Amino acid sequence: MLTAILAMTALALVLGAALGYAAVRFKVEGDPLVDKIDAILPQTQCGQCGYPGCKPYAQAIAGGEADINQCPPGGEEGVRKLADLLGREFKPLSEEHGTEKPRAVAVIDEQTCIGCTLCIQACPVDAIVGAAKQMHTVVAPLCTGCELCLPPCPVDCIAMEPVAETVQSWKWKYPVIDIRKAA
Description:
By secondary structure, the protein is mainly alpha-helical. Among the domains are: 32-99, 3-methyladenine DNA Glycosylase II, Chain A, domain 3; 104-162, 2-Layer Sandwich (Alpha-Beta Plaits), CATH 3.30.70. The chain contains seven helices and four strands; from the N terminus they run H-H-H-H-E-H-E-E-E-H-H.
């Protein structure tokens, strides 16, 4: 019986391919509310909100498990956008989770770096490159400024430098809206 089922499945696949039918793929869509909340968050993946990244925080907000004011990188502007989206009252940024700061990127003093790889392991977005016992460097366009690389560095060779707002960096502050999806 099993052999017959397998043979029929194989025959269906062969006939489908011969007739030009592509394999059917199913895409499971996420919760649209979670996606909208996540689009407002700054995508720093810093964990300052108490969640391991922006998507889990968005899920917690949508599920009513988290307040909208726990994201220091998103700042007061982010809290206002979340309040508008969700129809909730604006709350000031929670000081328990940190304070709003200007956007910054990590910079490694390459003369001081000992190549321990602890910063590489701590970076949630793989913005730090290097090898064990070799100098490391930060790929600035990938760095979200989360500061998670600072505490593990045993020689304090990492500093955060503010990013000037330019045509290239403005998107961090103002999310790009895909007009094809907005329609």
